[in-house]
């Protein structure tokens, strides 16, 4: 597992890979992908191009929020996986649920919810893209701590405080949001929850169901 390390001077360094035992406490980002050209990759970080890309906005948010929560490490799927390595990519996909589960905090960055008002932002959750994507299902269910933020970084609530609304939007029972793990959920139930969700690639839908 590779992580971004945010030092006290504002520097950002890609560190790792870490074994499960060696991994420090970390925050993790849940988001929806833009175009491939907009997203920051591991290569962009290494070549110093990260801040020039539109996708850096959510990375900057994640680093800032993690620092506020006294977490020096974060994991972000766009830039912490070497996608040129099929072995590393496969390992990441197979480990994804566990990585979200073992995170200290999961920050949901809602790109299409633009507001500094928590009340307005909560109302926008019903139509936000994040609620319709395939990969975000496990990213919502796996972590113990999930916090929802607008594009401006306004905290809208947590998985616990918004459980009733999330259940209404997704048809997922509130008890599944708070206590169950994916192993306790039947494949039939997962498929029902995925019914109105989409993924960028057709094969990704199968991966989200099996992870």
Helical amount among residues, as a percent range? 25-40%
Q: Work out the number of β strands.
A: 7
Number of helices: 9
Tell me the radius of gyration: 16 Å
Structural class: alpha/beta
**What is the chain-wise order of helices and strands?**
EEEHHEHEHHEEHHHH
Order of strands in the sheet with the most strands?
A: 2-1-4-3-5-6-7
Label the overall shape. Answer: globular
Question: Oligomeric status of the shown chains?
Answer: single chain
Domain Heterokaryon incompatibility: 26-121
Pfam family, one: HET
Protein name: Heterokaryon incompatibility
Organism: Microdochium bolleyi
Structure characterization notes:
The chain is an alpha/beta fold and 211 residues long. The chain has one domain (3-210). It has nine helices and seven strands, in the order βββααβαβααββαααα. It has helices at 42-47, 56-68, 86-101, 118-124, 136-141, 163-170, 174-178, 187-193, 202-210; strands at 3-6, 12-15, 27-30, 73-75, 105-109, 146-149, 155-158. It has a seven-stranded mixed β-sheet. The relative contact order is 0.13. Residues 203-207 have low confidence and may be disordered. InterPro entries: HET (IPR010730). Residues 26-121 form the Heterokaryon incompatibility domain. Pfam families: HET (PF06985). It comes from Microdochium bolleyi. This is Heterokaryon incompatibility.
